[in-house]
Structure formats: C-alpha cells, structure tokens
Amino acid sequence: MLTIGCHLSITKGFYKAGLDAVSIGANTFQFFTRNPRGGKAKEINAEDINKLTQLMEENDFGPLFAHASYTMNLCSDKKATREFSKMIFQDDLKRLPLLPESLYVFHPGSHVGQGSERGIELIIEAMNESIKDDTEATILLEGMSGKGTEIGGSLEELKQIIDGVKNNKKIGICLDSCHLYSAGYDLVNDLDGVLEEVDHIIGLDRLKAFHLNDSKVEYRSRKDRHEVIGEGTLGQEAIIQIINHPKLKDIPFNLETPNELEGYHQEIAFLRNNFTNK
Ligand code: FE
Ligand code: FE
Ligand code: ZN
C-alpha cells in the first residue's frame, strides 16, 4: 500500500488536519511541531488527539511526520541560539509520545562558517545531551541540498552524525527527492545506484521516511527550491519510479510542494494512479 500525504497546518487542531488529509486521499500528513519560526508549541488536547488516532485507524494511515521548526539550529555559532535550539529539540521529543504515531524529522543545521566538522560535532553533542536511554521517539535527520553552510548535504555527513550519537538505535534518515537531486544524487538517471549508495553508506534500514518533491533547479545546483510534482527538473517519470521502487516499499511519503489543498489532492491522485507496487 502506498502511504502518501502532504504537509498540512494543525492550527485548527490535529483532527481537522486528519480530516483534510482524508478529504484529499492522503493516509499520512506532515505538521510543524511548533511555529516554523520557532516559538511556542501548540497545547496538546487529548480529545483532539484521540479523535485523530481513531480517524487514522479507520483510514489505514501510516506514521505522521512531525517536522521541527526551521530555525532550530543545533550547530549555530551563537551559544544562545544553540541553547534555545536544544531546548525546543528536547521539548519536541518530550511531547512526541503524546501525539499520534509520528516520526520526528529535523534539518541537521547550518554551521554558519565554523566548518562542517565543527558543525557535526555540535549536533552530536546536542543530540547526546537530549536523547536518553528511554527516549521513545524515532528521530530522523533530513538529507539536505547542501546550500550555503548547511550540514547534511551528503550521505557521509548524515552517517557521521548517526555514528556519533550514543543511543542511535532509533536514529534514522528522511530523504527528500528535491534535496537529493540538488545535492548531486542522480535520482533521475540512476535511482538504483543512489539507493545502493544509501544502503552502502548508511544502511537502508535507517531510511524511514521520504519527502516527495519535484525541483525548480538543476541537478547538483545545491539549491533548495521545491516544485509541483511533474513540473520540475525531476519530472513525472522519476517520481513514479521512486514510489514504485521495491526498496522503498514500506516507506511513507509526504509532499512538500508549493500547493494548496486542491493541488495536493491532484498530486496524490496522480501518484495513486501510477502506483503499481501493490
Ligand atoms: Fe525538511
Ligand atoms: Fe524536505
Ligand atoms: Zn527543501
């Protein structure tokens, strides 16, 4: 079964987001754990969560993606930013068990000129301070396009972080088709090769989630510009190959394309129509 959804707002509650998902043929969705610019997380309302959990069961949902805010930067060059980021990271992890089944996805961070080695060191340090033996959450590092001083633009960097985390049993990765292509992984001409590389460097067992996006920019451009499915440099064929690849059979996909609900609805219908890997 294809688990596919898209990024949705939870400002009107989790249940409302679930209803939106169902109305567009989705059986997962992604939400921001808090305002994308940081700040306070939404109060958790147990009744709202229970209603969503039931809706998810009735509609064969896969896990949701709980996406950290973009401003969270565990490897900032400013101590205050690092401390604030660590605080929201820890708060997110604490809240996750109270939500319906969710995978926690975060961008590793930007070293802002300190160099990747130092950046990676700081991320590992923050994760080790935050992830305890009893942390239940599945925590996924997102593979990035590698723009600017972004960490995670290569599989090797993701692997280095995973290796540095002591309690890394539940650490995995979320790949993003737009980011991979921009970072120089040629999903269009050699999807098999890219997946072999993922397996060789990190291990496919750590790949738990996928962001499905087309891209506005060329291969290896190291830019991060999402495009509607089929209208970008990846194109329909490459995206159809991804959702049908036997090695990605049980992976949940969420769209982060520039769309409103109706646009997502059409994309999901297109993907379901082209899903043959049943
Ligand atoms: Fe992301
Ligand atoms: Fe993404
Ligand atoms: Zn992106």
Please describe what this structure looks like.
The longest helix has 17 residues, at 79-95. The chain has a single domain, classed as Divalent-metal-dependent TIM barrel enzymes (TIM Barrel, Alpha-Beta Barrel). The model has no long low-confidence stretch (mean pLDDT 97). By secondary structure, it is of the alpha/beta class. The chain has nine helices and twelve strands. Helix 1 (14-23) runs parallel beside helix 2 (46-58) and helix 4 (116-130) crosses helix 5. It has an eight-stranded parallel barrel. It has a two-stranded antiparallel ribbon with strand order 5-7. The site of one fe (iii) ion (FE) has 4 residues, from loops.
Question: Descriptors for this entry?
Answer:
278 residues, eight-stranded parallel beta barrel, 9 helices, 12 strands, 16% strand, globular, binds fe (iii) ion
β-strand amount: 15-25%
The total count of strands amounts to: 12
Separation, N- and C-terminal Cα atoms: 6 Å
Low-pLDDT stretches are: none
What CATH first level would be assigned?
Answer: Alpha Beta
